[in-house]
Amino acid sequence: MKRVKTGVDGLDSLIEGGLPKESITLISGPPGSGKTILCYHFISKGLETGDTCLYLTLDNKAEKLVTQARQLGFDFQSAVENGTLKIVFLDIHNKLVYDVVTKEILSGEYDRIVLDSVTSLSELPIYVEKTELTETNEIITGNDFSSTIDGPPSRMHLHYIINLLDTAQCTSMITSELRYGSFELSRDGISEFLADGVILLNFDPTMDKRKLSVMKMRSTRHTLRSRDITIGEDGIKFI
Ligand SMILES: Nc1ncnc2c1ncn2[C@@H]1O[C@H](COP(=O)(O)OP(=O)(O)OP(=O)(O)O)[C@@H](O)[C@H]1O
Ligand SMILES: [Mg+2]
User: Fold this and answer.
1) CB 60 near ligand 1, within 6 Å
2) pLDDT for res 124
3) Is 36 in the pocket of ligand 1 (CB under 6 A)?
């Protein structure tokens, strides 16, 4: 099993050296728990090892993301300039946002992809443009969703996104927003089953402590016990 380093030393040693190559890992946690910063580490490590990276962001415009990352010591600007990192802001008001996601994920030969966050994308309605699936389609495209689908759109969206990332054969991190105090592993209650791994970030304000737990990692022996972490000017560190 080839491993892909997350860029956080303490985390890699918890999961036999890194994420399984070409796996999809869900990073879940309440606001401010460090999901985005963990993704920065993952991208930064990729750039350091010569990987081509894609960062799909729904929360921040690209410039803001580069600035935030710089404050934590990650130089994304030069990687964007030399073409090893592409940052794409996904506007959820764009009805064709799924077409943009599809094009970006499948267009490049990316080694690492971050989707931050999957929650905003999975809660979108399904826009109907065509109601019939054709047998020649290898994957369902945004145009193929039917208006007669039963169940919540999020399940369709999440299956679609996971399928896309699988097709792209990259190693990816997708983030999921949790309500503070929630005992769930994702906001949608579905993505933790679809992802190959789940890393939970949390904090305890009364003790002023932050935590990281590996809740699931296929093909990997790992502890379920949470570990204390800090977030400082160099990002995430294990205590
Ligand atoms: N330069 C820094 N130095 C120290 N701590 C920082 C720094 N930048 C951010 N933090 C801490 O990290 C937190 C934000 O982390 P991050 O943006 O990764 O959270 P998140 O889980 O992605 O949140 P959200 O769900 O809102 O996107 C801040 O609330 C702050 O506590
Ligand atoms: Mg974030």
Assistant:
1) no
2) 85
3) yes
Asked if residue 233 has its Cβ within 6 Å of ligand 1, the reply is: yes
- Three-state secondary-structure class, residue 3: strand
State the distance from the centre of ligand 1 to the C-alpha of 148, rounded, in angstroms.
40
pTM of the shown model: 0.91
Ligand 1: nearest atom to the Cα of 232: 4
Bridge partners, 217 (sequence order): 197
Superfamily of domain 3-120+169-238 in CATH is P-loop containing nucleotide triphosphate hydrolases (3.40.50.300)
pLDDT, tens only, 161-210? 999 999 999 999 999 999 998 999 999 999 999 999 999 999 999 999 99
| In the chain, domain spans | 3-120+169-238
Instruction: Bin 18: left if φ > 0, else alpha if -120 < ψ < 50, else beta.
Output: left
User: Cα–Cα distance between 12 and 24 in angstroms, integer?
Assistant: 15
- Residue 43, CA distances (Å) to 50, 66, 141 in order: 11, 12, 27
pLDDT at 153 over 90: no
Q: How far is the CA of 32 from the centre of ligand 1 (A)?
A: 5
Tell me, using a 6 A CB cutoff, whether residue 71 lines ligand 1: yes
Tens of pLDDT, residue by residue over 88-109, are: 999 999 989 999 999 999 997 8
34, 88, 106, 177 from 30: Cα distances, Å:
9, 23, 30, 6
Q: Which of 120, 178, 231, 233 to mutate to test the pocket of ligand 1 (most atoms within 8 A of CB)?
A: 231
219: pLDDT strictly greater than 60:
yes
Could you give the CA distance from residue 151 to residue 158 in angstroms, rounded to a whole number?
13
